[in-house]
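Re-run with default settings, no changes from the original entry. Doing this only to confirm the output is reproducible before filing.
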Amino acid sequence: MSSPTFDCTACGACCFGGHDRYIAILPMDRDRPIPETATHEIEGRRYMKMACGHCAQLTITPDGQTLCAIYADRPEACRAFRAGSFECLKARQHRGAEALALRAFAMAQKETAPPPMEAAPPMMLGQGTDQPPADTLNPSP
């Protein structure tokens, strides 16, 4: 019997936590270029910022994958969380529905979002308008 393959980009449950101290920045993270804006301090210790119940660095791609915005520089606590591990399975059991809901919401937003506006070329005064060319305007006193 083969074991299932766990794809972190299809889940993201491990990034969900119930409190602002969910992901601690440890001493071994000191040399990692984790953006200061991605963390906060509580009682003298640093933690990853949380947003809506998940790490603020959790992003959803247009095709519904869950990715860490700072994956290469992620904290040690995140590095220790291995796909398919006991902790992974527990996170999927307890937070999988929240992760699924976030991905579904992101995909629904994408489907209902208006198409991006194309940048209009800058118009010169007098071109394509009812106003006279710029060199015929009188400056105000």
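The mean pLDDT is 81. The helical segments are 76-79, 86-112.
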